[in-house]
Amino acid sequence: MSRKNRKRGKRRQARPNPRKQARSAERSRAEAPVVKPAPAQSERSTVVTLEALAPLIVRSGRPFDEQAGVDPARFPPPSTVSGCLRTAWARATGQNFGVHLAQLAVCGPLLVDHENQPVVPKPADAVYLSVGDSPICVRAEPKSFDVGCGADLPEGLLLVQLAHEYEGKPGHGPLWWALNDFLHFRRGIDVAFAELRKRGWSPPEGDRRTHVAIDPRTSAADEGKLFQTEGLVLDARKAEDAAGNGLRLLAKCEEPLGDCLVHLGGERRLAALEPQDPTVWPQPPTGWLRDIAKSGGMCLTLLTPGVFSAGYRPGWLDAAGFGSPPDIPGLRLQLRAVAVERWQAHSGWDLAANRPRPSRKLAGAGTTYWFRVLDGTDDDALRALWLANVSDCQQARRDGFGLALPSAWVPVAALN
Length: 416
Known about the structure:
Blueprint: H1 3-14, H2 18-31, E1 45-52, H3 78-93, E2 106-112, E3 118-121, E4 126-131, E5 134-143, E6 159-162, E7 169-170, E8 176-178, H4 179-186, H5 193-199, E9 207-215, E10 220-231, E11 248-257, E12 260-263, E13 270-275, H6 288-295, E14 297-302, E15 322-323, E16 332-339, E17 344-346, E18 349-350, E19 355-356, E20 360-362, E21 368-375, H7 379-385, E22 388-389, H8 394-398, E23 403-408
Antiparallel strand pairs: 1-11, 1-13, 2-3, 2-11, 3-8, 4-5, 4-7, 5-6, 9-10, 12-13, 14-21, 14-23, 15-16, 16-21, 17-20, 18-19, 22-23
């Protein structure tokens, strides 16, 4: 470029044309891409679903080496889901990651099908039997001991026995039930085994994959260093007469969340987080709480594993079995019987302290307690107990452990 042209260019830059600039700015605004605004508050919800986009890896916390073997597929515990939702909320709101995130309370997880119908764990007092060639589901309930009979149960607890005598062998059935079937069962209505199997779900065989360690120097497989993972698949129901329908995790968070992709469990497996209408979260049916108040007794079933200081026994009960659930001091209960599943081991990694968490024994989902209701049967107290976390420790309740569903139970005179 000549010196003359360079001077001319400088004069053009020094004397901008206002009209030309205005036309250029207008044209730029017209050609600019439309930016979608941030999701409105109505597009966010405290009730969300998590759709696993790959088999979920949830390890048990035992040593992970060549001698320990592969961890079997596990359903995500409440702490895994609560950590996922807290991370999503922190990223969406620009919060700093720290111990304060643990104060965000979460309930769940449960399951929902493709029609957003909740699916809950099978109660421990439902027993599968094979009578002849026909599988059936029978109920167990607290009963007084026959004359001259006893047991080594803790003082004051009754034995949980089958409601009727059957000649059969232990059978197998779905480990998760449709919520409506669960509510019918709690109302004393027998549900046909075929219907339980059709609408229920059991975890399929895990998705096992073999991996290799990569040598950072050669970017090739490190010879002899193999390991396996086994993931939980939520994309099909295990029923002969039902089409495979996708299942999603259902949870309730203290703060509203919007659509996003999240990491759920190990191996950074992806899941799609989607807000739902709050009515998707189970609500007590009409007259449900009133029936509890009239019955004089209560059946409390855990829908997520519980963390209690005395194993299966809640720490908010005294040695005689009297006490009140957390944050509901007006509701006075007396423990009369318990049906428990095998305890579950739970551990993990403490990110704040950068060390392993101590192992804990959890009361498994489906554990059922029978109480006499001594005081506090007003609607507010019973409604506060509906799907509340009843674990002993406040942090365990914030993490979602011990989600409980109360129902009516009429204790006979012999049991009082």
